[in-house]
Amino acid sequence: MTRWLRRLPLGARIAALTSGTLVALLVIVGVFVHRQFREALRDEADRELVDRARIAARSLQDAPGAEFPDHFLDILDKVGASAGSGLEVQLMSADGSVIAATESLEDVDGLVKGGALVRVASGVPVYGDTTISRHVYRFAGVSVGDARDHIVAVAAPIQDASDAEAALLAVYVPLTVVAGVVGAIAGGVIARRSLAPLRRFAAEADAIGALDLSQRLSTPPTADEIGRLGATLNRMLERLDAALRRERQLTAEVGHELRTPLAIIRAEVELLGDRIVDEQLRTSLESVLEEVDRTTGVIDDMLLLARADADVVLDRPELVDLGEIARTVVTRFSAVAAGQGVTLGALGEARLAGDARAIERAVANLVDNAVRHTPAAGAVEIEVERRDRGAVLTVRDTGPGVPADALGTMFDRYTRAGSRRGAAGLGLSIVAAVAASHHGNVHARNRPEGGLEITVEFH
Known about the structure:
Blueprint: H1 3-6, H2 10-61, H3 68-74, E1 88-92, E2 98-101, H4 115-121, E3 126-132, E4 135-143, E5 151-157, H5 159-207, H6 225-275, H7 279-309, E6 318-321, H8 322-339, E7 343-347, E8 351-354, H9 356-372, E9 379-386, E10 391-397, H10 427-437, E11 441-446, E12 452-458
């Protein structure tokens, strides 16, 4: 298969191969039919020409050597070469040179030439076509059988047969072209209908989320290759779905198991801190508490994602004041922002039905991401806006932004866009999961004046 054909879609390749095969078959059939038709038109003429050539040859066998050419002209009436018959006769020597000929063949080279001279000398008649004065003639050549191996060639016009052959080609060639076009169209239609289940498989597979493998492909009720492919893919999806459920269950169980010891550790460290006077040790314990809190945050993120995968983020939907949540998050991060010399503020009001705890976690992740990547003297701004259907929360910073090719993947799990690195790469994926659980979406863009803008829509 040629390289250009490989680059075509499968349906186009099938149509091209179908059309090409049909045209090749028609060409082979056409060549065979044309050859048979040509031979059928010439068989009767060949027999008549050979009979007349042999009559002339027998008449010349008794001619005296000196009178041979003159005697040849005298026997033209015997072979029927009269003016109204249309026959032409040519007498040649063994080397193919012309000795005598009727008027139309006087200026024509010997009709029998090349390898045909050897066959004639061995007693085998030869046949061929020639053009004389723009007319097609058929000739037959036989050996006279005398001592000098003279050759007699008798020719007759076959313009009607030639015209018939041309007419056959004039009809067959366009029909072959039309058949090729029709074959290509038919092949394309057949391929399209035959490949429709594969296109449906592709659309359904594309609609299956990476974290929701509960859907299955609609396989046709047939036992052909496409049906078996669909059944195989569905079995593969079942295995992947089972593996994903086990992973989610393990994540949830591990998260729950870790939260209790972490809470105990935190309580014990706080209790120990109250009893220690040494400032250096107290500082170390505070560092331990920060790490415990960070670890607890990661576990909370994992549990929230596990709940999002199971579509249970909205455990207790309630009326949520998005503006109040934004201001609460600003209060939580005000000390961190001030320590880094970053201005942090929130404005706007909006209410929606949702999970307040999940939304606050998402907003906190956005603000934490923005504050950590905004340089000193920069600013992070949260804007809340009401919409006809739900609300929109936008977080803008004056940081370095992210590479353009990372904007589309920065909300994927375990992905860290450029220099924007967060714990385990879960922070922004939490935002996407919370937005999706509220029938919304999230997208990011680099601001023309510098910095990143992330917009979360809630419906």
